[in-house]
Specification:
338 residues, alpha+beta, Aminopeptidase, Elongation Factor Tu (Ef-tu), domain 3, 6-stranded antiparallel β-sheet, 8 helices
């Protein structure tokens, strides 16, 4: 599953431009016992026949898109003005490398620190003050390679390091996609549907459409979630911790989760000797915000992998959390199907 995650993270696909990711996923699914379709928004929707038909229709969901950037203008000097696609902190982008789909590379820069005056030194830079440098001599040369509306992406090579850690760009949410692909490759006890969704990072816009197509009773959203277990952060603000297992949320900024499914998730983890934790703060959100209130309403649970440095060029997760989340997802679906 690690090799699958590596391949997925290497792909580029910001919100609204997920085609490369979708094509890869469709190519990896195969045709044995599955039905695959793409809806009008670009969601990849899959049904896989299991050994039995469940009493309740089960859907898993993970989004294909990642955060990135879109070019908004080109200066006369050949620098690119840009806007974020998704929630990206300006502090996470200064000096970072980016790449366009035509393999043009660039770096995000701004006013040098030694030239900052007064309050500028203590203030976080604004996106509007930063520019992408692709090495062009002027606007005419830059326009040979890049146009307004073009997307670009963080560079961040997949790296295994330290004590059981993985770092890469786009782990949010290619890890959820990797888990669902691995499940599709296995023999399932119950029929399941899988929604590889689009445009999550700009308002969970694909997930609602997926529900209308698949009509589930129950959905498990597979995600990455913010872990702040780093030096200088009070324990109460850590939210969740790497190495402590799958995060099962009771509530976030977009959804109040089904209490019965929340309890079943922890029971299932204990029965299978899997580590499991919840959040210490009500923050974030995911496709559940759209899923739970779509169609006639869907009972929803979120299983998340704790992730440091979310929405940056080098997200970090724990291998054990990743592999245990895969097990919990399938075991939970078997209990929820009854």
């Amino acid at each position: 599953m690690l090799e699958l995650l590596k391949k997925l993270c290497a792909l580029n696909g910001v919100s609204g431009d997920e085609n490369d990711v979708a094509d890869f996923i469709i190519g990896e699914i195969g045709s044995d016992g599955v039905v695959v379709q793409r809806d009008n928004l670009g969601n990849v929707l899959v049904f896989k026949k299991g050994e039995r038909t469940p009493n309740k229709k089960i859907m898993f969901a993970a989004h294909m898109d990642e955060v990135g950037f879109v070019v908004t203008d080109i200066t006369k000097e050949g620098f690119l003005r840009f806007a974020p696609v998704g929630g990206i902190s300006p502090s996470a982008v200064f000096g970072r490398g980016v790449v366009f789909k035509n393999n043009i590379v660039g770096v995000i820069g701004g006013k040098p620190v030694h030239l900052l005056d007064g309050d500028e030194k203590s203030k976080q830079p604004k996106i509007g003050d930063l520019l992408i440098d692709i090495g062009a001599a002027d606007k005419r040369e830059a326009e040979k390679y890049v146009q307004r509306g073009d997307n670009c992406y963080f560079t961040g090579e997949f790296t295994e390091f330290g004590n059981n850690r993985i770092g890469a760009k786009a782990i949010d949410d290619r890890l959820g996609c990797a888990i669902m692909l691995d499940m599709l490759r296995s023999d399932l006890k119950y029929d399941c549907s899988f929604a590889f969704t689009v445009r999550e990072e700009v308002g969970c816009r694909g997930a609602g459409a997926a529900v209308f197509n698949l009509e589930p009773d129950i959905c498990a959203v597979l995600e990455a979630t913010t872990a702040l277990d780093t030096p200088g952060v009070p324990e109460s603000d850590a939210v969740c911790r790497l190495g402590m297992g799958t995060v099962v949320s009771y509530m976030d900024k977009g959804a109040v989760y089904d209490r019965e499914l929340y309890n079943i998730a922890f029971e299932t983890a204990e029965e299978n000797n899997l580590k499991c934790q919840t959040k210490t703060k009500i923050i974030g959100g995911n496709d559940a915000s759209a899923i739970h209130k779509s169609f006639g309403g869907v009972r929803t649970v979120a299983l998340s992998c704790p992730c440091r440095y979310l929405h940056t060029s080098f997200c970090v997760i724990d291998k054990g959390d990743f592999s245990e989340m895969r097990v919990l997802a399938e075991k939970l679906s078997e209990k929820a199907a009854l």
